[in-house]
Amino acid sequence: MVDRPATASTLCTVSSGQSFLTSLIPTAVGNATKVFDVDSALTDTAISGAYIDEIFLRYTKKVIQTVDAATAPTGTYSANSTTCTVTLSAGHNLEIGQKVFLDFKTYNSGVVPKDDEFTVLDTVNFTSTTFDVTIPSLSGTITGNVDISLPTDFCFYLVNTGTITNINQFFPLFVASIDSSQQSYSCTLNEVLPFINHPTVQAGSNFVSANNEVAPKQRGLMLKRGQALYVAASGATALTNGFYCNVQGGFY
Prior knowledge:
The chain is mainly β. The protein has strands spanning 4-12, 33-38, 49-59, 74-87, 99-104, 116-119, 130-149, 152-159, 171-178, 184-186, 195-199, 217-219, 221-224, 227-233, 243-251. Strands 1, 3, 10, 13 and 15 form a five-stranded antiparallel β-sheet that branches. The chain has a four-stranded antiparallel β-sheet with strand order 2-14-8-9, with no helix packed on it. A four-stranded antiparallel β-sheet has the order 4-7-5-6, with no helix packed on it. It is elongated and about 70 Å long.
């Protein structure tokens, strides 16, 4: 089906102007970056549309511990035994099961917990401002301040025009939430790209069972001529260091 292969790479630092916890829609028409264009200006009559089979994001530099796309906010923590409860009064964008890097800055007694990457736990303490992680066992209750490297969230938008004049022309498709330790992120491998109505041809033994009549589907996007794909990071200010958004597909 693909007649003209296409790969685009665009550095993305622009933020939407507000937290995605408030709204996915950018606050201004300039608060998103175009990353793939399917003749949105309607000047190329040789194509009918495009197929995207992968979108992967690559951090702009190699880092040792954690991605520093934005300044890590400072919160407080209370650690006892193997449980550490972290509170960020301004709120966080973490999901249960995500990885988060914690840089413990101060402590009131005993031994400061070790800086490390932790998994956000599914506990009663999980709220919009608080979460628990498991740490190596400590004696007594230790409290202090901690820098929290939060995920970087990107929202992808479908736009149906070559000239954007209103924020209502951004149609959110999906959000990629990149852990602070991830320097490279595949929207296919992380099952963020949606399924398309195009069954994958496989032998019966490769299905859930030999008699399964449900064919596995491929992930990707189908765009028609005149459309474009945009992306924006969550937040009120631009990223200090961005990600390259790489789109792989082709025109037909």
